[in-house]
Hints:
The chain starts with a helix and ends in a 9-residue tail after the last helix. With about 650 residues, it is α/β, with parallel strands linked by helices. Helix content is about 60%, strand content about 5%. Strand 3 (about 75-80) and strand 4 form a beta hairpin. The longest helix has about 45 residues, at about 190-235. The structure holds arginine. The site of arginine has 10 residues, from helix 15. Arginine binds near residues 162, 394 and 411.
Amino acid sequence: MHIPQLLQQRFVDALKDLTDDPDAFASMIRSTTDPNHGDYQCNSAMPLCKALKQPSREVAETLVSRLKVDDLCETPTVAGPGFINLKLRDEFLTEQLRAMLGDARCGVAKTQQGGSIVIDFSSPNVAKPMHVGHIRSTVIGDALARTLKFLGYQTITDNHLGDWGTQFGIIIYGYRHFGDPQVVNQNPVPELSKLYRHVNQLIEYRKALASKPKTIEAIETATNDLAAAESSLASLPAKEQKKAKKNIASQQRRIAGLRDELQSLDGKIQAVESDAALMADAQKHSDIDTAVLQETAKLHRGDPENLALWEQFLPFCKDEINRIYDRLDIQFDHTLGESFYHPMLGPIVEKLETMGLASQSDGATCVFLDGFDAPMIVRKQDGAFLYATTDLATLEYRLKTFQPAEIVYVVDSRQSEHFEKLFAVADAVGTGDVKLVHVNFGTVLGEDGKPMKTRSGSLIGLESLLDDAVDRAKQVVCNPDRLENFDPPMDESEQEAIAEIVGIGAIKFADLGHHRTSDYRFNLDKMVALDGNTSAYVQYSYARIQKILERAEKAESDVIDMVESHGIQLTHPAERNLALMLLKFEEALVAVHKDYAPNMLVDYLLETAKVYSKFNESCHVLRAESPTIQATRLMLVALCGRILGVGLNLLGVGVVQRM
Ligand code: ARG
């Protein structure tokens, strides 16, 4: 049940003879912020009054007189300049709730839209351990896939693994120079990670050495410029001072940023130079960065030895990430990595050339695009293909294989330009009417507001982050004071199972709760609190509901019988608020799809849990005043429990029966 859509249809009928575009005006229906103004309001009278050359209040009155909503609403009222306030009839609410009982879809309509939606998400570069940067694509993509599927879309999830890039050059090099075949064979996953980290650290050291002098120079120049700007400030005319001060402030910020960068470079240099063994390796492998690129290039050319190593290592790398996906309860329909598209790269470049879209520039093959400063390079001078080439081949393959209506790429905002170019080239090649969307997202920051790193400057491993969250969840949920209240007592294995669900859920829910395009600060304490805007709060509401149902000895099927025999009646405002909230579930899900924004569902679940809590404070269920009131309240409780459970599940967050 999508109430605004239902009301919108009625408004379209009422608006038909008043405007050429009734749909646009009818779509101006919103939830009210003040319950005194009803449940929904329609704001179309104000924009419409200009065209009709009538006062907006009069337009609103006319609309109300034409509107046929008796079956849904009490008599609409007009307020202020012409807001049309709509209050749903109690009978309408209770009928809808009655229909939701026993309905696995929770009253949510199935979309009529055909065509599939491909969702490209997670897509880490394997061969290196997953880190904090991989949370967002994985969690947002999974929540979108689950929600769209629930809405009835045919979804195709695809993990576009980076299984063919430089990271393999790194482990091949590492294996050859630092690896012990026997140790690697015995314990491949941790050993390969170790080799990756080791070689990467040496490369980072080289890079840091090379960029340190440049950074120092940049700081010096910026500091001199700043001093000059500061000393000339007083002599400037008053009008120009404001602007100059702004420039000074921005210069100061830039210097602070450069200093941070220098500090991080020093950290990388220190980490190697303070360790004799590392330092010896660094000296011996002074050309490690180019050597690694050569190993990668050899692999791409089909060098049999490198190819054999790649084939030997890849399954282990996949095992490693699959372990994390299992823990996160994430599945994909397909995992077609970059390597899968390798044979298609030459042909796609040829196709672009034949179509006259690609041309040579400085030995490289490029697609020049209107509106972009730089072209899209699809083949480098040395013949190597690029990330963009693979994405073009991937797109062509997906169009041919899945014939989707929509392809959604859940990828970091820093790749926005890449996708703008990709979509522009796709448009030039011709993709039919498929909708291509870059669902971009911001960065996870540490508590200091900077990208989250470990002390040595590397990104924090995803697994250790999950472990920390689970530990924290255990401290919060299973502290001795709380444990006293459980009967039968909670044994160790139940405590661990709860901590895992609450801890992992906390990380996902906190991530999804921020609008995807904004950065957010990672704060475990806040994420796992029982009384904040957290999954633990919603999970706790769910568990309390299970307890009430258990005490009442009523399953949802029993509640159906109860309302059949005793009827339904809303007698308290807290009941009505909860009823209305439960009927807004579909609205929340549709909003998630509209902007690819899972935070809309997070907000809905938090709001519902809060409204439930008010209901729980003011309405007795087990000691209700009459059988009808009890049947009504049990219905609300049962439906609320189910919607919270289903809603959390759509976010990839689990529930527990007690906590
Ligand atoms: N592997 C890439 C990275 O880690 C992300 C791939 C996203 N998907 C795509 N089709 N480009 O940056």
